[in-house]
Write a structure and sequence with these properties.
This is BTB domain-containing protein. With about 1250 residues, this protein is of the alpha+beta class. It is built from 41 helices and 39 strands. Helices cover about 30% and strands about 15% of the residues. The strands form 11 sheets. It has a 15-stranded mixed sheet that branches. A 5-stranded antiparallel sheet has the order 28-27-26-32-31. A 3-stranded antiparallel sheet has the order 35-37-36. It is rod-shaped.
């Protein structure tokens, strides 16, 4: 009876299973890495690959159809294996398989190593990647030969695999099958020493040898696993790729110490092996190798509980070197030298217990969750940081973000799970951990949509814990070891015990990383590792690791001036002042040097230039201090910066107040960074009130320092001055101890310049080394002032609050005349109280010494560097001006004073405070002189800027006062170019008479009485004419009229120039008078026909001949009795021409003067060959009176024309004969003198005039 059921179950053919596995494992060097993985898991220290191109014994058996008898002699396990005796790859390691290993390798996808978290091949799939090359895998280990045949087509009984125990008999029986193994074992035996190589499984054999015969095209056609065939030379390129990364494959392995690749390209079995390349750990000797071996296996022993550990984190670190030969090259190496290459690495590893992870998981299966999180980081050193790389030869190499070459530009960080994964991290290091990876080792487990407790999410959470905790910590450990000097013997300051196993000679080639450490900082990453940079930065700052590079080792003392202490190049976060390298490069060199020097000297914080790529990450980490105005100001407080160069102080202030000086001024409080004119640095303080003891003065002009010899000034040339200027100017927004020189400072300025008794004085001059005040010696005024101070009941005040009284002036009382106060005179745009007759009167109560303590206010301590002024009566004055040197200093300060006043607001009363002080420096070659505003106004002060050099020289020679007035002073005094028209007449008056003036002992002197000698030599007048002409071109009408009073009009004599003013010049009414007056008055007679500038002035001013009556009254009438006969006759004729109007009553004054002179002056001149005699008209007899003798008649010249004589003489009136008595008396006197002397007497003309004087008002005037 047939059963009711039959077998019905899921099945999977082994070849299909393997084919699916190969789809997940890509064809490439990973095949050999899986074999290397198995070797490391087995504890092997050596791994070698042999590429064999030999067709071994038995391969030709399958070439022909052989009989069963022939088949028995092939010495193979099965004749069908003959097709796999051709070229293949042999993989050797010096570890033996254990029973568990034999059991585990038979499992497909269910590795016996799954519960051993120290094993790399936990999933049992990696070994199956070897089926990419072959369908039949065989290996010998521990006296056994094992062969896998998933097709069941090549082994006896069509078995999928078999295991043969190797004995002498079996070795002999299947010698052809073992021939490929024997060749490799013989080569390995030669490396270990025996002369005769043992066969597989012999007592001298120690290791495991895999054989992967290559799948030919014929075999691939019948294969169900893979239909890819492989040629020997194709596999060689695969081996070269494996060697290219072999130097980095060993980094995180626990046992393997060397890897070799050998090839035998000749098909003859007698040919020798040649080395394709090798990688091995390079140490100083066996002792170092043994110690390194323990370090590499430390984490494995920890997990195996071989190390007593209270389940705390365990850290280890070491520097390791690998020697690479042949095709083995460093990753990214562009050199292809045949010489051995050396790579050096710093490896840091960490194991952390996973209890915290277990607490948050519900009953995780122990086989799925390790007890420790393992992490490691490998930092590349050589050749990436070789000296030729760190020290660039090309100058352009320093134009990068940091001033070093980018040594890791060709390096690509990779993720490892002990062996490389198919994941690049974007980090500058290799990072390894016991990740939960996918079965094909291509990726890490990620979160899925499954439940939180699902296996996939459990593995993803495990990876997250590694990436967030363990990996950042071990990365930080590696950077700390490198910065701590693991590679600098004798200078190590390591966070934990670590060793360098790099040979001493080789270690010299490893440079001090220094600034290159920044290139190892994680800045960017990708994929699963994107958060690593942030976590690493947080970890380094949290543990306060000394990994922030400040620069080379520097030697500084506490003040930064002498050598005393070595400053390490790496600082922790608490002692680092971070700044973007690009921002640091944009800082002024003075700022960079000052920050560096101050930080090193102060030993508080050191400037650290952070690459721009890392700034974004570090700036988000709490606990870092960045170079900002606030942090820099806080750091500088307490530093001794007073010896700092001014340029560096300026740079610091500019940065603290950035951007553009708009930062908070409170950041400057307490910082000694204020550049002073003295060259030192002052301390910025908070100004609580209106005044501060340590206030610094502020002025645009550095010369203003001379106005305050005892005060400190901010250097106006500094950038600090420029930055603070707009803010300090607005005192309401400034709380710094800086006072701008403004109106409030003016009283102190005046007290520093002028002695108190100079006030109300018009002029101070230096003559013969003595100081004269208004022409009096200064000592007399000083004594008077001192006496007044002593007699005063109240203390004398330094400068008046208001104009009340002045020391040395008359008492404060009304003038006895009883007239009202004189009104103020206006000039320019200001109003001044000028009184030419007397000085203004002030009260002594308004005078005090400027430093006198004010009542009701507490005394303030004097600064140590401030000079105190005497305050007691009778003490020496605060300002002394007693010699030429001190006078010159005062003049200089007065010049600065006006510059200071020029900058004050127009609304200030500065000009009112200065108007009665001699504060205007007058430029004079003769003597040093100071004038007050009143004096300058009276003397018509001129400005040098208004005239050319030639004109200035002329004005100076003429005695005009010139100065360099400021704009305000010019406006205040109304100074302009036309002011010379006012100043010149006064200057000419001060010069006195000309060189050819008439003196009293000269003949005819009385003719010139009343004439003002304001003449100027024509040679000196010509430049003055040009000056006046140039001024008149732009002068106003009122200024043009002033020109008439200047001696610029030429006389008919041609020697002088005279002004057009009464008494100073003569303007004749007609040419006839010009000819008559020329002989005696040529130097006063105006030449109206002159040429040149003089004639131009006459025509420009419209000067015309004078009116006849005015000329006769003002010029001729006073001199009528002094004219000669010709002039007298012409005078009388001119009078007659005026008609009879002048003889009437109540006529104008000119007519009265003319009539009076005709009546009272001796205008009749007798020329009888002797001395001329004169008489009045009233003393003569009318020529028509025939009753008198002819001698009483006037001279014939006076009778022609008769009309003139009758009109004038008869109006006088003429007298009769009795009048002749005076002439008779004179004749008798004259005759008697002649008899007594025996000759005719010669009487001076003035005696004759005295004899003929007449009692008239005009004569008395003359």
């Amino acid at each position: 009876m047939e059963p009711l059921w039959k077998e019905f179950a899921q099945k999977e053919d082994l070849t299909v299973r393997l084919r699916n596995i190969l789809q997940d494992y890509a064809f490439g060097p990973q095949i050999f890495r899986e074999l290397l993985q198995n070797a490391d898991d087995a504890g092997a220290s050596r791994f070698a690959l042999y590429a064999d191109n030999v067709y071994h014994e038995g391969y030709e058996v399958r070439a022909v159809e052989a009989s069963p008898e022939a088949m028995k002699g092939h010495r193979l396990l099965d004749a069908r294996l003959a097709s796999w005796q051709g070229p293949g790859i042999m993989a050797f390691n010096n570890a033996l398989f254990s029973e568990d290993d034999f059991e585990g390798i038979c499992r497909v996808g269910a590795s016996i190593k799954q519960s051993d978290h120290t094993k790399i091949g936990r999933y049992g799939l990696g070994f199956n990647a070897t089926y990419h090359l072959t369908d039949v895998v065989s290996f010998v280990s521990n006296n056994r030969l094992c062969i896998f045949d998933p097709h069941r087509a090549h082994l006896p009984s069509n078995l999928p695999g078999l295991q043969l125990v190797l004995t002498d008999e079996s070795r002999k029986q299947f010698s052809a099958q073992l021939a490929p193994f024997n060749d490799v074992l013989a080569a390995e035996a030669q490396k270990t020493g025996p002369v005769e190589a043992p066969g597989p499984g012999s007592p001298g054999t120690s290791g495991t040898l895999f054989r992967l015969p290559l799948r030919t095209e014929k075999l691939a056609a019948n294969s169900s696993i893979s239909q890819l065939s492989h040629h020997f030379h194709d596999v060689l390129s695969l081996l070269q790729d494996f060697l290219a990364s072999a130097g980095e494959v060993l980094l995180f392995l626990q046992s393997v110490e060397e890897v070799e690749v050998h090839i035998r390209e000749d098909t003859s079995s007698s040919s020798k092996w040649s080395s394709l390349g090798s990688v091995r750990i390079h140490t100083a000797g066996p002792a170092a190798t043994t110690k390194l071996r323990k370090e590499r296996q430390m984490l494995k022993n920890l997990v195996d509980d071989k190390i007593e550990q209270d389940r705390k984190a365990l850290r280890t670190g070491f520097a390791i070197a690998f020697s690479l030969h042949g095709a083995a090259r460093p990753s990214g190496d562009r050199h292809h030298s045949a010489d051995p290459s050396i790579t050096a690495w710093l490896v840091a590893a960490r194991a952390e217990p996973a209890e915290a992870f277990h607490k948050h998981r519900s009953n995780p299966h122990p086989s799925n969750v390790p007890a420790f999180r393992l992490g490691a980081v490998a930092i590349p050193l050589l050749p990436w940081f070789g000296r030729s790389e760190v020290e660039p030869e090309e100058p352009d190499a320093q134009q990068s973000d940091l001033p070093i070459d980018r040594p890791l530009s060709s390096f690509k960080g990779q993720a490892y799970c002990f062996l490389p994964l198919s994941l690049t991290t974007g980090l500058p290091v290799h990072i390894s951990a016991n990740f939960a990876v996918t079965a094909n080792r291509r990726d890490l487990w990620r979160r899925s949509d499954d439940q939180e407790s699902s296996e996939s999410n459990l593995r993803a959470s495990w990876n997250e814990a590694l990436l967030e905790k363990t990996c950042p910590k071990v990365y930080a450990d590696a950077l700390e070891l490198l910065a701590g000097g693991l590679l600098r013997p004798g200078q190590c300051k390591l966070p934990y015990k670590a060793d360098s196993f790099i040979p001493e000679g080789l270690q010299l080639q490893v440079p001090d990383i220094g600034r290159g450490l920044w290139s190892l900082w994680p800045s960017t990453a990708k994929g699963h590792f994107s958060e690593i940079p942030r976590h690493v930065s947080q970890e380094l700052v949290a543990r306060d690791a000394a990994v922030f590079y400040t620069g080379d080792d520097l030697v500084f003392s506490a003040d930064g001036t002498s050598a005393s202490e070595v400053v390490p190049p790496f600082r922790n976060s608490k002692s680092s002042l971070l700044c973007s390298s690009r921002s640091f490069d944009t800082l002024k060199p003075e700022l960079r040097s000052s920050i560096s020097r101050l930080c090193l000297a102060g030993r508080k914080r050191s400037p650290v230039q952070v690459p721009r790529s890392i700034c974004g990450i570090l700036s988000e980490v709490k606990g870092t201090t960045w170079l900002e105005p606030l942090s820099l100001a806080n750091m500088l407080r307490g530093f001794n910066t007073k010896s700092m160069p001014l340029q560096e102080a300026d740079a610091l202030v500019e940065y603290i107040l950035s951007p553009e000086g708009k930062g908070s001024l409170s950041l400057l409080h307490g910082l000694a960074l204020c550049p002073l004119l003295s060259g030192s640095l002052g301390t910025f303080l908070y100004r609580a009130g209106a005044e501060s003891l340590d206030e610094f003065l502020w002025a645009e002009d550095a010369d203003f320092k001379d106005l305050f010899p005892d005060r400190d000034f901010v250097d106006p040339a500094s950038s600090t001055f420029r930055l603070l200027k707009p803010r300090v100017a607005n005192s309401s927004n400034s709380n710094l101890n800086i006072q701008i020189l403004g109106p409030k400072a003016l009283p102190e300025v005046l007290a520093n310049i002028f002695p108190p008794f100079w006030r109300c004085k018009s002029e101070v001059a230096l003559a013969d080394g003595k100081v004269l005040i208004d022409g009096q010696p200064q000592e007399e005024l000083q004594k008077t002032y001192a006496q007044m101070k002593e007699q005063s009941a109240k203390p004398m005040k330094g400068y008046p609050k208001g104009a009340k009284s002045c020391p040395g002036s008359r008492p404060s009382q009304k003038v006895a005349t009883g007239r009202k106060n004189k009104p103020s005179k206006k000039f320019g745009k200001q109003t001044l109280d000028f009184d030419s007759g007397q000085e203004d009167v002030y009260s002594d109560d308004d005078w005090t010494e400027s430093e006198e303590a004010q009542p009701g206010k507490p005394d303030t301590p004097d600064k140590s560097d401030t000079k105190t002024r005497p305050t007691q009566p009778g003490a020496s004055f605060c300002v002394k001006v007693s010699n030429a040197t001190e006078m010159n200093v005062t003049v200089h300060r007065c010049e600065l004073l006006w510059k200071f006043v020029e900058g004050l607001p127009d609304k200030s009363n500065a000009m009112q405070q200065l108007q009665d002080l001699p504060c205007i420096p007058v430029l004079s070659s003769a003597q040093v002189r100071l004038m007050s505003c009143q004096g300058a106004h009276r003397q018509h002060l001129l400005s040098l800027e208004d005239y050319t050099a030639e004109e200035v020289k002329l004005l100076s020679c003429l005695g005009c006062f010139l100065a360099r007035p400021t704009k305000k002073l010019r406006t205040f005094l109304g100074i302009e170019r036309a002011s010379a028209l006012n100043a010149l007449p006064k200057a000419v008056e001060r010069m006195g008479p000309s060189g050819n003036s008439v003196t009293p002992n000269m003949p005819g002197m009385r003719m010139f009485l009343g004439m003002k000698d304001l003449r100027l030599d024509i040679e000196r007048a010509r430049p003055l004419q040009r000056l006046v002409v140039s001024i008149l071109r732009s002068a106003k009408k009122r200024d043009v009229e002033k020109t008439m009073s200047l001696p610029v009009f030429e006389t008919r004599g041609g020697k002088f120039a005279v002004p057009v003013s009464p008494g100073a010049s003569i303007v004749a009414p007609n040419e006839e008078w010009d000819e008559l007056l020329h002989e005696e008055f040529k130097d006063f007679l105006l030449n109206l026909d002159a040429d040149g500038d003089g004639g131009h002035l006459i025509r420009e001013l419209g000067i015309q001949r004078s009116n006849l009556s005015e000329f006769l009254a003002r010029f001729c009438a006073p001199r009528a009795g002094l004219f000669n006969q010709k002039l007298s006759v012409h005078f009388l004729e001119s009078v007659a021409a005026l008609g009879s109007t002048i003889w009437r009553k109540n006529v104008q004054k000119d007519y009265v003067a003319i009539a009076t002179s005709c009546e009272e002056a001796p205008v009749v001149v007798f020329n009888d060959g002797r001395d001329a005699r004169r008489c009045r008209c009233s003393e003569l007899v009318d020529p028509e009176d025939v009753q008198v003798t002819i001698a009483m008649h006037p001279p014939r010249e006076y009778c022609s024309p008769v009309v003139a004589w009758q009109d004038v003489a008869r109006q006088c009136p003429m007298k009769f004969q009795s009048v002749f008595g005076c002439f008779h008396m004179f004749s008798v006197l004259f005759y008697s003198c002649t008899l007594r002397l025996g000759k005719l007497p010669t009487f001076p003309s003035f005696l004759l005039t005295e004899q003929l004087r007449w009692p008239c008002h005009l004569w008395q005037h003359l």
